[in-house]
Amino acid sequence: MAELVQLENRVQDFDKRKVRIVAVTLEDRNDAEFTQKQLPHLTVVSDSEQKLTGAVQAVDVGANPNGGDLAAPTTILIDGGGTVRWMFRPERFIVRISPDEILAAIDERLPKP
Amino acid sequence: MDTVSTTPVDRGTPSGRFWFWFGMAVSFSGIAAYLVQFFVFKQLSVMPWYAPLLASLGVAMVFLSLRKRRTTPRLLGLLLVVIVAGFEWFYVLSFTKLPPYAGPVVGEKLPSFRATLANGQAFANADLANDTSTVLVFFRGRW
After folding, report:
1. DSSP, res A21
2. Does B41 reside within a domain?
3. How far apart are CA B50 and CA B39, in angstroms?
4. What is the ipTM of this complex?
5. A56 to B119: CB separation less than 8 angstroms, yes or no
């Protein structure tokens, strides 16, 4: 979740570009609420039924130490019409994308507001 | 009549001691460096290949010290650094590997979905097509 803290700290840069950040977790609503309190400028989604995470094939099956699933760290840029403009998934989960890389993708792929 | 030997007892030389301790330090330095990378520099986008490489280098150094002088502590030290290096290679090469991306690509819309916001409100496709661009970030969890 360290990458979300970095995004929270750079939220003004996203606001300038009129882009919101939606963080999706497979955790239940209680955990999502806790995360939302920690990251008040992001929109946190609880996707415990994997409806959204499954739709974008971002489920890392069996990756949770308790035997359950986890989300594969994935970043998808969607324009105001709901169309995918860019996506990123690292080869390994210890690598996370930086806010600067996402902002660069926004500047390259979306029209200036 | 007692005799006193004037020949000094050979207690061995510290041959290889430097390589043993330096190898041990190098073996664990990768983990320390990764903690600094993560917690101090907050640099998450760099793959820490250096950690298993340093651990492997440490194994070679400890092995060299064992070649110079075989002792039980050095043998146990070698066993320890081999385990550390093996774990680190397994961690970076296999354990952390993610399935390749197979979701919607550039130009496509997301398949139909319905999830829940942290505040309990519904979140569905229509919320992504409301004239506001969105960065969807899927994360592993709070832990």
Report:
1. E
2. yes
3. 17
4. 0.90
5. no
- Please say whether the beta carbons of A41 and A5 come within 8 A: no
B67-106 tens-digit pLDDT: 999 999 999 999 999 999 999 999 988 888 888 888 899 9
Q: Which residue in B105, B107, B115 is closest to A52 by CB distance?
A: B115
Determine the residue of chain A that is closest to B139 in CA distance: A73
**CB A1 to CB B139 under 8 A?**
yes
How many separate domains does chain B show? Answer: 1
Domain that holds residue B47: 17-95
Residue type, A103: L
Domains and CATH numbers, chain A: 2-108 (3.40.30.10)
Phi/psi at A86 (5° precision) = -170, 150
At residue A71, the 3 state secondary structure works out as: strand
The token pair that represents A100 in the structure block: 């600067």
